[in-house]
Amino acid sequence: MGYRTPLARARGLGSAKEGADHFWRQRVTAVANIFLVSFLIWLLVTHIGADHATVKRSLARPQVAIPLLLLVLSGLMHMRLGMQTIIEDYVHSEGRKVAALMLNSFFVFAVGLACLYAVLKLSFGA
Amino acid sequence: MAEARQTVERPLSPHLSIYRPLINMVMSILHRLTGGALYFGTLLLAAWLIAAAMGPKAFDAVGAVFAHPLGLLVLFGYTWALVHHMLGGMRHLIWDTGRGFQIWQVNVLSWLTIILSVTFTLALWAVGLSLRGGL
Fold first, then answer.
1. pLDDT at A124 over 70
2. Choosing among A31, A33, A48, which should be mutated to test the B contact, i.e. which has the most B CBs within 10 A?
């Protein structure tokens, strides 16, 4: 191992061993979001001013709950990647950058889990 | 390491303030801004869903905040950011295929993004409000 140059060790692994993974996941979730966000907009427009019982009844339907769950997963993954890029572009001090990247993950997982929990609770009829 | 080496004051490349704003540049900035806004705007969707899961009282409370003129303004902005970022993303997906890089195409795609995002947002609110029967 000691004789290998840094280049030889890095070769074939891509940057940070992930290569185009960030780019690709950003694009896959982007395409998914076109459909899922269109669904969300339709859901919201048809539920402006709707009372609790109506919303509960809608979200209890699998054809509403499942796309909504998919939207939360795909949307939040997309958000996390996007915010990561913004942080890496603008936060240059290593400590603050790492802290911001962590906060990004915490935020996305907390909001995501809360949304998933709420949709599941509503659709399982609590 | 990078900081330690930088002892010479080197000239920086010109930044945003130096350029005459071009439509594709403005759309690029708006894409990032709307993306950042949507990040925090997700809290609106989360609040709506969580309140619905908590029960009628919490749901009505959140509904009252949304129905306040300021709430409506924020929701309108959120809708526009959502539509704008989606259209901007489609523009980027087109560019990802290597198409649309002629200057006139870049300009057309950029103008389309802003024109359609405003049009769609207004149309969505018109439909939504008419379904609800007024503000």
1. yes
2. A48
